[in-house]
Amino acid sequence: MYTTMQLTTRLLLTALISTCWNNSLLQSQSPVPDRLAIQDVCWSPDGKKLAFSVLYGKADWSDFKPENWQLLVYTLKTKKTQLVASGAVFAAFSPDGHALAYSKYRGEGNWDIEIQDLHTGLAHPLTTDSTTRESGPSWSPDGRHLVFFGGKGEQRELFVINSDGSGLKQISKAAPHKCFNPCWSPNSDRICYYLEKGDHRDQIYLTDSNGSFHQNLSRDTLHNYYPGWAPENRIIHASNDETLRIMQADGSGKVILNGVASFYGRIDPKGKKIAYIQKAGPTQALALCKFPVRGNVEKLFTLQEYKILQAVLESN
Fold this sequence. Notes:
This protein has two helices and 24 strands. The protein is mainly beta and 316 residues long. Strands 1-2-3-4 form a four-stranded antiparallel beta sheet, covered by helices on one side. It has a four-stranded antiparallel beta sheet with strand order 5-6-7-8, with no helix packed on it. It starts with a helix and ends with a helix.
């Protein structure tokens, strides 16, 4: 026979074990929340469309596969989104707006630059070397050339190539450092990019189409990345404090864009709007607001819009 104290203790212990078991069971059965990741965004030359790449999956990235990236084009007037390519990131509109260049996943860690005609939907590879990884293409103002970053193994250098795939040339010698995400000025031969040295203080650099110089523009102790050109020959980029910053092409006139927290942003060709990637918990959204930053923020594409788009794609 149990004493009253022994019985009470036994009941409490049983209840505790039951509670722990149930909590453990609930945790094991609880699904990992989903999330929408957005990699990049760019404007069409007429400012009427946005291209960006998205990835849907679990918030802990346990189901990540590079082939699941989807490259989308959003038309501002109609608010319609179309799928351009799968396994594709870092797109850039051609100067005439008729084509998109982007990085296309080929499997086994291989990425090539691909160009797609937006009228016909036909795509062709610009680079085909299976031993290298190429990404982040950007067009020259006349549409005759593209710049991108890539290389073998861990190498990341800058390359310029003709739009027909000929004339490949390397314009940087950064090793053991790495060059990323070059962006060609829409009205000159200047190219901005960011340089990684492994010290968590990546810097924004400027060069030209021949790589005849490499100038550090940001010159600070921050981690700076994803540069792009803005109207009036300025450069916009992100920093590790989740701020977007803008400066002149010589590195002067640095300004923080207050009111925007983002790791990627682009100003439209007319300098009236800014599109940027907005964080919302484990997921992200493509947002739009006036530039200079003021007024309401419009969320163009969220997790909800993604699910609606996928339902439409699956029904067709």
